[in-house]
Amino acid sequence: MSAALLRRGLELLEPPGRAKAPPGLQRGRAGPRAAGAARRRKRAPEPGRNKATVKGRVVKSAIEEYHKKKPVNHLRENLQYMLKGQRVADKAVTEQVLAQNRGRKSKDQPPEKTEKKKPEGTVFTEEDFRKFEREYFGIP
Q: Where is the sequence biased in composition, kind Basic and acidic residues (predicted)?
């Protein structure tokens, strides 16, 4: 992202009461070659201090740096936040949100639920079959 686009975005986000900086203080290009000239221009060394020396430098503690960069676990606060709200969304709304977030590819679609077929049992018992044989075939 260029600096000009970044500045425009920040101007859009400024509260309406604040005014722009005066034109003399704004950094802008004088021409198409100004960017290259700025890169070629060498900075004059400041007489304030020599950066090659250690004098005046603050030693940073490695433990403090580790603790600063250590990830923080926010699970407990998040759970408390989620549990304090007792409002539950409708089933239709949650299904709609899930459908919108799901991709259009077949691999993203949930598998269709198939109803299990119950094994078909007979109404007749073995005793009924024996009785039918005796009546129909005449076997005693």
A: 106-120
Q: What is the pLDDT of residues 1-21, one digit of tens each?
A: 688 877 877 777 776 665 555
Question: How many domains in the chain?
Answer: 1
Angle at 82 between CA 77 and CA 88, to 5 degrees: 175
CA dist., res. 129 & res. 140, Å (int): 13
Q: pTM for the complete prediction? A: 0.22
CA distance 98 to 126: 53
Residue 134 CA to its chain's centroid (Å): 75
Triad 63, 69, 71: Cα angle to 5°:
115
DSSP string, 93-126: HHHHHHHHHS-SSGGGSPPPP-PPPPPPPPSS-H
